[in-house]
Amino acid sequence: MTTSAEDDDEIVARIPVVLGPVREGASSCLLQYPLRPRWRPYDFAQLSGARIRPKQHQIEMDLRIPAYDGEEGEPPPTCQLTSTVAAHKTAYAMGLLHVGAGATGTAGCADALDGLEASLHLAPLDAVAQMRPTFSQPLEGAADGADAAANPAGGGGREEGGGAEGGGGGGGGSEESVMPVFKRAETEKEEEARRSSHAYWLAQREAEPWRELRMHGGGDAATVEVRRQMFGLPS
């Protein structure tokens, strides 16, 4: 099949593509919110706290929920978001179109770039995390309610134990013998199965302490500087 010169697309602009520099000790992560549509995003003006576990690629955010019928004096309820790492199906990069001074927003893209020093800067994306609400707070409240229902007297069990100890005080203390426990060494297959289990993964995740995060807006000076370093923009 042959095509004529009239069928070829017209070249309206040529833009050089620049790959951003590699930053030692820094990584970029894209946060997705799959349970929220684009027209109803989370209100990050209500953000009350954020934490990260860098090695586990885990992020938590606390968002205040406006309550109109809460009791006076009680703190507003919060919604906690936790991250889940999403697998990469291919290599992704973030792009920033840098246009020199003099561009106007009234003209089209091709007209705005015509005669200007424009360049497309790319930075590799290291991770993708999806933020979803966690149910740890409701579950903790339900567990506290179950404990209170199981022990309505509160402390009765301790008093019973104290009486038993007092009654046995006259007979003198008895020492219990401790027998040694021997376990055979794990095979490679058993060790691999243990390391791939959910309990092992959960223990490894909980072993890393949280680090507090300070969030910055898109127009803050710190954000602008990080963006400049990430994409290799001129200062």
Automatic annotation (TrEMBL):
Region: Disordered; residue ranges are: 138-177
Q: Name one GO cellular component term.
A: RNA polymerase III complex
The record's listing under InterPro entries reads: RNA_pol_III_Rpc5
List, as start-end ranges, the regions of compositional bias called Low complexity. 140-152
State one Pfam family annotation. Answer: RPC5
Task: Check the UniProt entry and state the signal peptide residues, or none.
Answer: none
Give start-end positions of Gly residues composition bias: 163-174
Q: Which species is listed as the source?
A: Emiliania huxleyi (strain CCMP1516)
Q: Which GO terms describe its biological process?
A: tRNA transcription by RNA polymerase III
What is the name of the protein in this document?
Answer: Uncharacterized protein
